[in-house]
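Morning F.,

Quick status update on the modeling queue. The single chain you submitted on Monday has been processed. Sequence for confirmation:
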Amino acid sequence: MLGHEDGKLINLKDETMKMRENRRLWAFLLAISFFLLPSFAGNVRLSVDYGRGKSGVEKGEIFYINIDVTNIESAPATPDKVPGAKVLYFERMSHSSSFSNINGQITQSTSSKYVVTLRALDEGKFSFGPVTVDGVKSNTVSYSIGKASAQHGPAASQQAQDTDNSSSQTADSDKPKFIGKGDSNLFLRATVSQGDVYEQQALVYTVKLYTTYDAIKFIGATAAPKFDGFVVEESNDISRSLTMETYNGKSYATAVIARYVIFPQMSGQLKVTGNTYTVSVDQREYYHDPFWGSMSYSTPLQLNVTPNDLVVNVKSLPLPKPADFSGGVGSFKIDSELKGTTFKSNTAASIVYTVSGTGNLKYIQLPDLQALYPSELEVYTPTTDVKAEVGSSNVSGSVRFDYTFMPLEEGNFKIPPVKLVYFNPATGKYETATARGYDINVGKGEASAKSQVNRPRHFFSDLKSVKVNDLRKERVPMVRTFAYWLFYILPVGLFLIAFFSYRGYIRSRADMAVFNMKRADKLARKRLRKANHCMKKGNVQGFYDELLIALWGYMSDKLKMPTSELMRDNIRTVLEEKGVEESVIEGFISLLDKCEFAKYSPEGGKEGMESTYRQAIEEINQVENSFKKGGK
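Structure tokens below.
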């Protein structure tokens, strides 16, 4: 048995071993706690967010201040006051933590994001901060609140005064909002190809749309631009889709919505006044929901936008003008065409001169050919045929002058070259183009109408012999027979029918506006067949293009209204004057808006093509019936 001293010795050893084990345990726990301590210091950072796609804030708009807290478990206090703004929400939007083990080194990091939602109340420059979280101070952020634009002014001021934010968001949601010349989110820019030109020189006037909105639903002109002192040719070279472009350092979706080729008719400072367009867009608003987090919604906006006005400096053509100046301004050439070189006297012949190039083709005049041609050739007034196409930068094409001439005498004659004198703006000089001349031979032809003498002929003058028995026979004279008179009456009757029919044909086409008015319904249905063809093929863009051409063309023909005056207000005024019912007018104009809306909608209006097509036929029938009832 162990003694008392031995027992004490054993107990001392046990206590010593326990102390060593406790030291090792504390050392291990200390090492674990050292490795698990976060390796990053706490940090608080402030930043300003103006919303998606925005680089600033205007009075009445919503903006945000983000508070990013790193490696701190405590939360920042709700701001009581933010200079120049009203606090709407304060919520923690996200929280995350991370662990990493690199070569035995364990690190931990936490991050939380808090967002202060604000509404701008006052204009000026302001700063906010610092914010202190668990003894750690943040930075200070600065922001500027600008003047409210026309788009946000009245609505935003009202919203800023409302206490209930939800009611302020929906107070004006069902009302269209309007802007004038545009703002930084949507505007129109008008340009001309040159600002310093000559009289009659072709200029290109372009209206371009710039926008940052999510969707463009409708674009329509409510008035026509005013071109004081210009002749106007409308071009179809416009944009069919939006393209991206950087303007003044900001990215916009752009489209050319109108293009005209204009010709100044006088010298001096001529003004072009921009017209008004109605544009329907979707404006996206962003906000923070306490439950769902960051949310957004679309607000429909109807904007009335006007492009900038322009002034063009027009110079007079250089003096002195050549005596045989044709009036052409541009770049041209002239060709001549004569079929054959042998002719007969008193027999009509034809010579054709064709002027081609770019410029004011419709206003070119050739020299007086009667003064240039030999006196033995009689020249008549020509018929002209203009084939001009309005492009993106000029009007190009040709004008055909078809002259009829008649040689009065026999002999050899020379048709001289014909000169076309025009002014070339590119060189600043008068230039001459020449059509070739011809040497012709005129042989003997029929006697002229002046030399012909009508000599009466006896019925028996050509008979050389007559049998006596035949003379004695009793016969009914041929002049008393029906066949004899029918031989004369029938050609005369046919001639009179043809003559009066032709006169009626010429009279009906003397005024093409009246002629088109009478057949407006027929022309519209012909155009509608093209739209029906596109509908069957599933060509949505082509369908609405052809449908709009049919509807606008019908009104242009029916009301004898030129394209430059073809606007909704003018159509409404003229139809009311002609006694068309108000419901019919509203139905037709609503159909125009519906077609243009479907044309520019994202889905392209594919689902409603058939119903829209039937409605177009019905509206045209309604207008036709109203005209028949009113007798106008």
